[in-house]
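hiii, so i know i said id send this last week but things got crazy w the move. better late than never?? heres the sequnce for the chain we talked about at the cafe, plus the structure i predicted for it. fair warning i was half asleep when i ran it
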Amino acid sequence: MIYEFEGMIPVVHESAFVHPQAAVTGNVTIGRDVYVGPGAAIRGDWGGIVIEDGCNVQESCTIHVFPGALVVLEEAAHVGHGAVIHGARLGRNVLIGMNAVVMDRAHVGAGSIVGALTFVPADMMIPERKVVVGNPARVVKDVSDEMLAWKTEGTRLYQGLPARLHAELRAREPLRETTLEQEALRASQRAIYRTWNETRKE
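okay and structure toks below
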């Protein structure tokens, strides 16, 4: 759902996909090839939110801000399921892990990875290409070229998802039992991307 608030209407590029069960309110700008999943709440009621091209905001994420402030997700920022971004800035091509929290005026440098369940406190400045974990967050190592390439590949999958959803997503009644055609379709889903741990075992 897209909501006007006090005259401010979200701007969503036509190539972006905002799931009908997401809520986008007020002073929000969403760029090209952005994916916003069901259950996401992007609230530009008190301040502004800018989501640049190629970002994804996955299921049950919350993006909000204190009055008069601004949240920016720079190009290709990747926000995992259930994460909260409150008044922060995410640099280009960062990864925010599932259920992580990034607080006000924090800045996550380009190419950095924030681990799942990490708490990034207000005002924390994370340099470029760092791995950050814990509560409170701490830098534990650099992001290697290999790790950054893995992250970029995963984000690229999400950048292609909006077009697929525009073309193929439709509400349907469920089948009561599977069919041979459905079995063949389900069997055709391939492992085209793997977890970081799986790539390290090779």
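btw The domain at 2-142 is CATH 2.160.10.10 (UDP N-Acetylglucosamine Acyltransferase; domain 1). thought thatd interest u
miss u guys!!
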